[in-house]
Amino acid sequence: MATPSAQTSTNEAVRAGAELVSSQIRRDEKYVTLWDLVFNESTSAEYGAPEPFAQFEQRRMVAIPDALRQQFEHVKHKSFSGLFPEINRAWITIDNALYLWNYEDGSDYQTYQGLDQVIVTTAIVAPKKDVFVDAVKHLLILATPVEIVILALMYNEEERAMEIHETKYALPTDDVNMERIIGCQNGRIFMCGRDGCIYEIDYSGETSSWWGLGYVEQPRKVRKVNHSSHPLTSYIPSFLRWSSNHTLIDACYDSSRNILFTLSNNSIIQVFDLGDGSQMKFVVAKTDLIKDARNKYQALQKYEEKILKIIRIYPIQSSESEQLNLVAICRCGIRLYLSTVRTSRYSMYSSRRRPQGLYLQHIRIPPSRRNPGILAAGQTGPLGGAETGLSTTDIHTALYSGGVFMFADQLTPTQDAVVAVSPSVSHNLSVGGQSSTFEVSVSTRFKELFQNISFGEGRTWEIHEMPLELAGVDASMLVNKSISNNELAFQHLRVERKFLLLTSHGIHIVAKSRPVDDLERLLTQNGPESQAVHQFAEQFGVDEFCAMCLILATRETAGATSSALGGRRVDQLQLMATTAFFTHAGRPHFESSEIASEKAAAGVETVARGIPPSSQKTIIYSGSHNGMAMYLGRLLYPLWTESIVVAKKEEKLVKGKKTTVTRYYPTFSKEQFSRVERRLENLEQFLTRNQFAPMSDVGVAPYSGGPQSVSKTAMHYQRRRLTDEAHKIEANSLSNLHQLLAFSIESLSFFRILYDYDLPAIIAALPAIAQTKFAGMRFNTFTASSDGVNMASDLVNALISIHTTEGDSVHQKLGKDLRIRCPSLFSEEDSLRFLGFEALTRAKTATYREVQLGLLQDSLRYFRQIPKHVVDLNILQLICGEYHYLRYYQGVLELCLACAHAVDPSGVSLRWVLSGHNLNDTHKKSLFDTRRSCYQPFTHSLTEFSLGGPSATTPLVDPRTGEVLPRPSITSEEEKNLKERVLDACKKSTDELFHYTLYQWWLDQGLDSELLGIETEFVEKFLKTLCKPEEKAFGLLWRYYNKKEDFSSATVVLTNLAERKDVNVDLSSRLEFLSRAVIAGKAALTKFQSSVSRPRAFAVKKHITGEELQQLEEKLEVAKVQAIVLKEIGNIVIKHEREEAERLLNSSLYTVNDLYNKFAAKYGLTMSALHLFATAGFHAPHQTYAIWDEIFSDCLEDAQNDGFHSLKVKVTAIGREFYPNDNVFSLAYLIPKLEATRLDFTNLESRAGSDASSPYWVIELFLNVGVSLEILFREYRMLVQSQEARWRAHQIPLFLVFYTIIDMWLNHLEGGSPFPHDIQSFRENDVGATVDEIRARLESLRGPNAVELRDQYESLRQRILNSQVISSRYTEYH
User: What is the rounded distance in angstroms from the CA atom of residue 311 to the CA atom of residue 330?
Assistant: First the structure.
């Protein structure tokens, strides 16, 4: 078994190799695009001759069968011919008859004569989904001048023949001939009408019919939709409709973008946006394209429009160019490259952008037939200079497909010249290959290779490319690949492209050679060490050359022969390719710093991976290294970024009801995996046969003496040291690639093993989470990451679970296959895991509980031997989930604790937690996260008996029957005992971090009582340092201390809770904490005092003093005032000020000074200020009086709305709260203030019933507050005796109030049973003398009020003198 360090080293090597391969794949994807070549200039005309061999060669010619030739003699009206490469057939129509024949072998000859009109147009299209049976892969559309019919094509695999079936789909043409019919990949069918309109055949199936092949009599739903006219046009008779002056002659469909293009006979191109494939939106009709071309290239001005007429259009797929959409072929051979969105060199274009118009981007001048290969930048072209006229003037058929341009130009009435133009791969590689658009040099020129193809006499009528499926290629591995325009990247996978040319003599099959085909011919004709091979390596670059050598050197050898070798065995070619690989590869070396800087600025990565930064050097790998990485990347590319499985919705019967389920199937077939694996194995055999031994080209120079010789020797040894180091670095990188290669082979073997055991069923047996993860997993992730190893374990577990009943033989065979074919995915740890899962699987179906528990204990024993393996594979939750379902909670706990210890045996994560959670220490944090995740399955199990109900469990399914297994039953008594045993085991655990995790889980679930009820050494430490959130920790801590009767500690905690600055704790909570703190403090003080009197009965380690308790009570009083401030703050009008003040008051406790300065004074909180003065005993008359002035002002602000009543209510409320606190409620200030207010506003408030109209409302106010008559007497006496002018001006009103006070006092003494001190007080205040004094002052006053008042005072005097109560009580008192 590999050691952990060795395994880690292997994983790192595989990842390093994967990074290198991914880098090579990205370079292939950035291969120069068509847009890269054309964006620099508006016109181009550079061509070259193919070297070293012709690009196109005729493979064979298939003559038209004699039986068909004889049919031409019976033509009465019209005959047409063409190719259906989609079905490998050629077709000929003779009047109303259609003839199909297989041009591959001349067999399968069919005739259809079911129409009575001349057939004018034919097409092969894809059928719509769910209309025909699956056996119908193609539809044949036939159009006559009268009707259009749809035929279904089926293939008889046994007889290898095609069958034509009629359908019920037919519709009239409405006297419009259809010039061309094309189909979309989703089954839509469009037709080009001679009337200039684009039509669509819209058909659908019937739910009650079978498949529309003529076996039912029901009419089919089919109609013809005109997308070029108004909707009401269909109701107008055909002879009255407006006729267009143009005819649609061609149409093409861009399947990568869902765009439809049409071409008219007068060079008008229309664009239709199909949106998601079901829409049809007209975008533009480009009518001035020829004019635009003339403006862009002035040399075209002198040529007639008919020479420049557009005859064909072809789409440019997004894989070839994101920016360009269409190429239009002119009669003279000019190609016009067009886009549907305005774009520029630096525009960020996406194929998802919808078309907006049609814009000419580039004009490509055709090559000259008379001088085909010499056109270059700055030289004369076919439209000027030495060329007096267009050499290509009458193209009547053409093809543009994936960069290849073929056309037939009429030389004579009986002979055509066929010209083939293709991209110059080596040129594109040298100027911009493996660069993105923005990295391509602005000097990049568009160069193509030009070649004439001669067929002798005869005309060429149609040109098509043979589809990949019919060229013997597994097309699904190339579809939608971003490197599909990079021929070098997939030439090992794709055979040579073949083109079909229908001529008057038959069908010519022309093949386009690949660069690797040219290399094969060079090797066989010239030898691997020849100058021609060396030039080829320079032409394509040594890296690409070595990659091509590997293609040839790793070819299948079993009985294979090579045509280039004259039929000799391929192993001879392999030997020559191997020799060329090592001969021309070069050697690794270090690059000069100047060149390295230039490459670094250009973004070229040459720094060796795996070298410490201090010793990094710029290395240039050899071609053998880069070619190996390039070829390995290309072998893996079809799978590399693809999902391993795809999801499909299926209907399944569940308990008699149809249910839609998601089932996962492999993206690639077993055969596809096998082919890739076979190529990889061939490459590995090549590596095994040809070890890359480090080579040094620097020998040991002998020392010959002298200073100059010493210098040369030193330089010699320095060069040798650098060379050896470069070889060592390259050897390490090659080793990484080799390990990636080996692991990729193992991965493919692993999946091929799973194919044998029903991979979809295995995936269905995965847990839902694993299914979801596997559904999105790509091959590169599986191969080069730990997730792949984990997923392999999950898949093996699922495989075991569904084959449990097949006995140990299946497991042994499977284990043997896995160990032999993919040992990296199945180690000794996997074997123990195998045994553990086997025991667990058997336990799930055990009948007796004793047997079940024994098997569960066995499985736990196996799993505890590999706890780190269990964690790394993320199967802990799976195992514990099954333990939980089987009520094996002890096993859940033990396995969780074992795994937690395995991931962190030295307790690093605990120290990290206790030291303060330093998030910058990512290693320790990662350990902590992993260890904590190990506890989660157990806390999940705790839910079942801690929260009083069953936890969410995943039902276990019997793999034999698919039925849900019942859970073991348990009584309430057994459940209680089980809980006690599990909790007892928890308490005995020495895993401190587990305790903290358990306690936190209890709190998160609201199980505070569980925590407070457990007795361990870790509870207090947890609550003090680790519990989250902190406010809850403090809340539990004081309860914990109270339970232990540690009241002093509880007091401290509660005080801290009240005083901590936290926006989440409001003021009411702080008041509650302070109140509880006072209670706890009193209890602590009482307990301490008791311990002093009875020291043996108590053992109090710490206590709270009486002074501290007093301070705490004072804090509580101030906090209560703060609550008053908070309440008054609510009256602030400005919202943001109010909200900010409320936030501050809730988030902290303040001192009296802060409450006054920051809130009461700042916001004018009068009541709060008075409360603060009263609480603090603050004596500041001027500040208090200012507050009272503000109160008076606010109340009297609207005096006419009974402001005096408001004032009376306000002052009464304040007096009742603060009297007799003279600092806040000063009678010496308030009585004069109120009386002055009353006197000033008496005239304004003279209406009856008003507070102001009564002269006594002031004294009534003070009496309601609780001021005694004695005190009122003394205060008013000072007012009456005052010499101030304002009081002397209002003597009569004051005397009247004063009279009322004395009268009320006398009434009190005479009417009740006064205490002796009341009478003494009356006498001591010398009331009689005061009455005499006022009566005397009234003698000097004039007016009826003065006389009346004087009489009233005289009456008081007599009552005082004659009062027996006062005199008797007074005497009795004395």
Answer: 6
Question: What does the pLDDT read at residue 710?
Answer: 55
Residue positions counted in the chain: 1374
- State the Cα–Cα distance between residues 1349 and 1334, nearest whole angstrom: 10
pLDDT digits (tens, 9 = 90+) for 549-588: 999 999 876 445 555 445 455 688 999 999 999 999 999 9
Spell 415-424 as b/e; 16+ CB within 10 A means b.
ebbbbbbbbb
Residue in 186, 190, 147, 185 with CA at minimum distance from that of residue 169 = 147
Query: Which secondary-structure segment (H or E) carries 99?
Result: strand 97-102
451: left (phi over 0), alpha (psi -120 to 50) or beta: beta
- DSSP count for the chain of H helices, then E strands: 49, 34
The pLDDT of residue 495 is 84
Better pLDDT: 398 or 445: 398
CB count within 10 Å of CB 232 equals 7
Minimal CA–CA distance to 417: which of 393, 438, 434?
393
- Distance (Å, rounded) from C-alpha 1002 to C-alpha 888? 21
Is the peptide bond prior to 52 cis by the omega test (within 30 degrees of 0)? yes
Determine which helix (DSSP H) or strand (DSSP E) holds 399, and give its type and residue range. strand 395-401
Listed in order, strand segments (DSSP E) in 415-548 are: 415-423, 447-453, 460-465, 497-503, 506-512
* Closest to 779 measured CA to CA, from 813, 811, 806, 740: 740
Q: Which of 232-241, 372-381, 420-429 has the highest mean pLDDT?
A: 420-429
> Which residue matches tokens 């995936």?
763
pLDDT > 90: what percent of the chain?
Answer: 29
Q: d(Cα 312, Cα 629) in Å, to the nearest integer?
A: 42
Q: CB under 8 Å to 1344, separation ≥6 — which residues?
A: none
Of 59-73, 263-277, 685-699, 1226-1240, the poorest mean pLDDT is in 685-699
Give CA separation, 732 vs 567, 609, 1338, in Å: 40, 9, 125
Helix (H) or strand (E) holding 290: helix 289-296
Residue pair 409/392 in contact by the 8 Å Cβ criterion:
yes
- 653/637 Cα distance (integer angstroms): 39
Closest CA to 998 of 950, 934, 949: 934
Least confident of 163-172, 627-636, 752-761, 868-877: 868-877
Q: Are strands 43-44 and 359-364 parallel, antiparallel or unpaired?
A: parallel
Which residues does 827 contact at the CB level (< 8 Å), separation at least 6?
1, 2
Percent over 70 (pLDDT), the chain: 81
Rounded Cα distance between 19 and 733, Å, is 11
Is residue 278 within 8 A of residue 317, CB to CB? The reply is no
Distances (CA, A) of 1311 to 1273, 1322, 1330, 1363: 19, 15, 22, 12
Distance CA 447, CA 445 (A): 6
pLDDT at 558 (0 to 100): 46
Global pTM reads 0.63
Q: Is the dihedral of CA 677, 678, 681, 683 positive or negative?
A: negative
Whether residue 1126 is predicted with pLDDT greater than 90 in this model: the reply is no
What DSSP designation does 491 have? T
Cα gap 273→279, rounded to integer Å: 7
Are 144 and 120 spatial neighbours (Cβ–Cβ below 8 Å)? Answer: yes
Which residues partner with 63 through β-bridges?
Answer: 506
Q: Under a CB-based contact definition with an 8 Å cutoff, are residues 1236 and 1279 in contact?
A: no
Residue 1157: both structure tokens together: 């300065």
Angle between the N-to-C axes of helices 1203-1218 and 1227-1240, in degrees from 0 to 180, rounded to the nearest 10 = 170
The kind and range of the H/E element at 1191 are helix 1181-1195
Looking at every residue in the chain, the average pLDDT score rounds to: 81
